[in-house]
Design goal:
The protein has about 100 residues and is α/β, with parallel strands linked by helices. It has helices at about 10, 25-35, 70-75, and strands at about 20, 40, 55-60, 80-90. The strands form two sheets. A two-stranded parallel sheet has the order 1-2. A two-stranded parallel sheet has the order 3-4. It starts with 8 loop residues before the first helix and ends in a 10-residue tail after the last strand.
Length: about 100
């Protein structure tokens, strides 16, 4: 996901975006893509946001790093009643591998 993010792509569709990232170096990259005010220091198990503050939560190619029970409980807290969760996972093309 991080490599394919184009500057403000989701923002150009009128979406409001907030990224939660624990690593300083990746927060810096995200800040150049979506603006420093949209990037928060945090993890899925403790999202720095108020209850019901988002329309949706997405996890891009990272769910395998999370504590599933804690993360899902926290993720359930932050979307509005009509919101949802999307878990995105990349599947590498190993067809050319030896």
């Amino acid at each position: 996901m991080r490599r394919s993010v184009r500057r403000g792509r989701a923002l150009s569709f009128g979406l409001d975006v907030v990224a939660v990232e624990p690593l300083d170096s990746l927060r810096e990259v995200l800040a150049t893509k979506i603006g420093v005010g949209r990037v928060r220091n945090g993890v899925a198990e403790s999202i720095p946001a108020d209850d019901e503050s988002f329309d949706a939560v997405t996890v891009g190619d990272a769910f395998h790093w999370l504590d599933p029970a804690r993360a899902l409980a926290e993720i359930a807290r932050v979307p509005r009643a009509s919101g949802g969760l999307a878990i995105l996972a990349m599947v590498p093309d190993w067809s050319g591998a030896s």
